[in-house]
Structure formats: C-alpha cells, structure tokens
Amino acid sequence: MRPQTVGRVLGIGLRVAGRLAGQRLAGSPGNSPARPVTVAGVGGPASERHAGRQVGSATANVARGMGGFFRPFRRVGGIVFLEVMGVFFLLFVLVFGQMVWRMRSNYAQGPDHPKFLMAAGLMLVFLYLSASSFWRARRK
Predict the structure, then answer these.
(1) How far apart are CA 140 and CA 131, in angstroms?
(2) Can you give the three-state secondary structure of 6-73, one letter per residue?
(3) Which residue from 73, 72, 76, 124 is spatially nearest to 96, judged by alpha carbons?
(4) How far is residue 104 from each of residues 109, 113, 123, measured CA to CA in Å?
(5) Full-prediction pTM beyond 0.90?
(6) pLDDT single digits (tens) 30-58
(7) Which of 24, 86, 94, 132 has its CA 20 to 30 A from that of 49?
(8) 106 and 116 in contact (C-beta within 8 Å)?
C-alpha cells in the first residue's frame, strides 16, 4: 500500500472516530445519533464546507495581520539574540584566554604543551564565533 493511501485511510478513520465520539458525548448512549456516520459523510454538506472555508480564510487573515504586527519585533529580537550569543561566546574566550595566559611559558615545549595548544585553539574558535555573531547583528 502506498504511503499516501495509508495516510488517507488513517485520516478518514480518525475523522470518523472523532465524529462518533462527539456524537456519543453529545447524546446518551441509548439515543440514535442525529446523523449517521459514514465514510462518505466525512466531507459534509456544502454549507458545512463553505463555513469551514470561511473559518480558514478568517484564520489566515488573522495570522497575516499578526505576522505584520510582529515583524519589527522579530527583527529586533533576532538582533538581540545575536548580540547575546556574541557575549556568551566572548565569555568562553575569556575563560580559554586565562588558560592560555597561565600556560604561556609552556607554549613551545613542556608538559602542558598539548593543553596550551587546545586552549589556544578553542579561544580562537570562540573568538571567531563571537565576532561573527556581532558582525551578523550589525548587518541586520
């Protein structure tokens, strides 16, 4: 069975089960449902489909309006996020910079030579990340 067919069958089954559950909750178990539930009846009459389209277009209009309202805040929020991340990366630069400063006498040879190289490498990586984050915030 193709994935599209499986999805369609599962979707129809869920809609039918949802309608059955709604009818059972609305009425007592002894009463017959007001409208029989069938797979063909999932689409509903034309008036229900038209009402659904109206609700969908109203929801789309509200979402478009909210998107327009929040657009400036999204831009400012992105800039603030980039600046905060730049400061966060700068804190790591300070930590690894202290390690490099303490081990500066072992830069050429010594027992801490690998640690010195690792700290210096990480300091450069985080310095790059911090600078690029501030640069990207400046470009926005």
Answers:
(1) 15
(2) HHHHHHHHHHHHHHHHHHHHHCCCCCCCCCCCCCHHHCCCHHHHHHHHHHHHHHHHHHHHHHHHHHHH
(3) 124
(4) 10, 9, 14
(5) no
(6) 555 555 555 555 555 666 777 777 778 88
(7) 24
(8) yes
